[in-house]
């Protein structure tokens, strides 16, 4: 009997160990193997300047793309692998539940299928760029096998790179704010539009994270600059690390591609910046690009009704890998689709959704072409293809032109139905197939005011009082936003009141830390002032401080730290179109935090708000100014064990560009940390942080003669056919 029990026990142990081993190893074994690009030879020279920014030169554009992959891998191979895992539906095997949500979105949107179907519609030179970039990633992986964190991820090819675009682009205009509530079966956000706040969001956001994608952009024409110089300021607000953190670079080929700017992990070309002749930057806009339809299903849920007929509901099963510690669990999910688009079933029924840009990867051709445009007419003609689904474009060039396009793939809807609500899913006449003509979108070209701006606000406040468009210039069914951010109110006020807007004035405006007593700011301050807090001395002191606040997060006032904490949640609620939190709750949480960690309600803002990165020999812990909705943006933060707020999102890649009469383009830039994004033992891990903290910029060495003066360890990388 004892022998039988012992044998049974051993059998249980063996079975258990086998199951554990299986859960630890199954995912790479069943993953679909990748394909290497067709054989091709590449040769790229990578020269890093004194700040480690890569300047990549090649004979052909494809050579340069190969070098972009090598350089970016040297600085941030870890994040590049995350992005590649997303394109394969394997991110959950790295990032657990949050990663599995991205994998589900990949399947739901059929991003991989879109890339496969549309890949050969891309121009041959664009495909050549993608294949070269993929080859560079493969070569780096092969040369550094110890850095690979997910087995069987490589090789990758151009379709993998294209899939990343198909997956991430829709989340820039807020598609996640439609998918999330539909999956959960909770009420949709007001007008089911995007939450404002700049992931270029971005990738599907992790659970519990506010959708804080925002940016500032400024263009000043020669007539307003006071010195005849055309100026462009790119001030994107992105996460400081991760799949949509900016990576700075300069590219140059003998075929005429020459551009300085920044890109995201997984892209072979910059998304914003400048060439010799022109430049642009982007801010997230919030057009109504998505429509939701409630389907009528038959009894067994296999068909849906359309114009009185029953059509089969498309369905397919996907297996999502979800990491829990050392184990990776297989979770089976079913994704659905109708002729409207993707379908989500929840406790309230089955809902299809349709969005502008669905099923297209034409933005790959467009971004590449924008990099090489030489004139405004060329640049505008590329945008007018309607290939890039969303984001505002603010433009300037050496000819002295400035422009702003409210770029958006807005469906061409007929008047009558409530397009902001949930539509009947059994009427084909509500399924649109065309987009609003591009030239009917709000836009400005050389306004009389001499300046343009956007801070994630309505396009009807962009050029000052004398030049702004009227909201009545577009029909309401286009769903163009009418809201203003605090940043927009400040920018409009400061730009209107400043003449000329020279280099010092423009920098002062960009780094402004002020708040306007308007919108949610006024509501919060009025509500705090109206509180009866005689029963709580701490709240009474905090109320007094807030009443004396100078409406500036410059770090000079005693209430600045308290105000930054108080205003964060209302900013998020305003962007998310949700009710503002109760004033007493805001005051209580903020004051309790400061008293707990700093022993006072009025610590200097510089002691509380920090630029932190480490560990390692180049760790930094520096002061930061600004607030969650100031032009000097510290949008959100992580709370440290010591109670200090380590900024993780806000001012990220900043670039000032100038075209002076008769002179070549010049520019300066800065990022919060450094070029070696995830390399803590590299001097360039944080070597820009001190400058960033002090509102300083570094030079961009755009021309090769300048690059050579500051060249550090130039190297040539090649791939043989």
SSE layout:
Layout: H1 2-30, E1 42-48, E2 54-58, H2 61-87, H3 92-108, H4 111-118, H5 124-143, H6 158-168, H7 176-184, E3 214-220, H8 222-225, E4 230-239, E5 247-253, E6 258-263, E7 272-274, E8 278-283, E9 290-294, E10 303-306, E11 309-312, E12 314-324, E13 327-337, E14 342-346, E15 349-355, H9 363-372, H10 376-383, E16 392-397, E17 402-405, E18 422-424, E19 443-445, E20 451-454, H11 486-497, H12 503-510, H13 519-529, H14 537-547, H15 560-575, H16 583-598, H17 605-608, E21 609-613, E22 620-623, E23 634-639, E24 645-659, E25 666-670, H18 689-693, E26 698-699, H19 704-709, E27 712-719
Parallel strand pairs: 2-5, 9-18, 21-24
Antiparallel strand pairs: 1-2, 1-27, 3-4, 3-20, 4-24, 5-6, 6-7, 7-8, 8-16, 9-15, 10-11, 12-13, 13-14, 14-15, 16-17, 17-19, 21-22, 23-24, 24-25, 25-26
Helix pairs in contact: 2-3, 2-5, 2-6, 4-6, 5-6, 14-16, 15-16
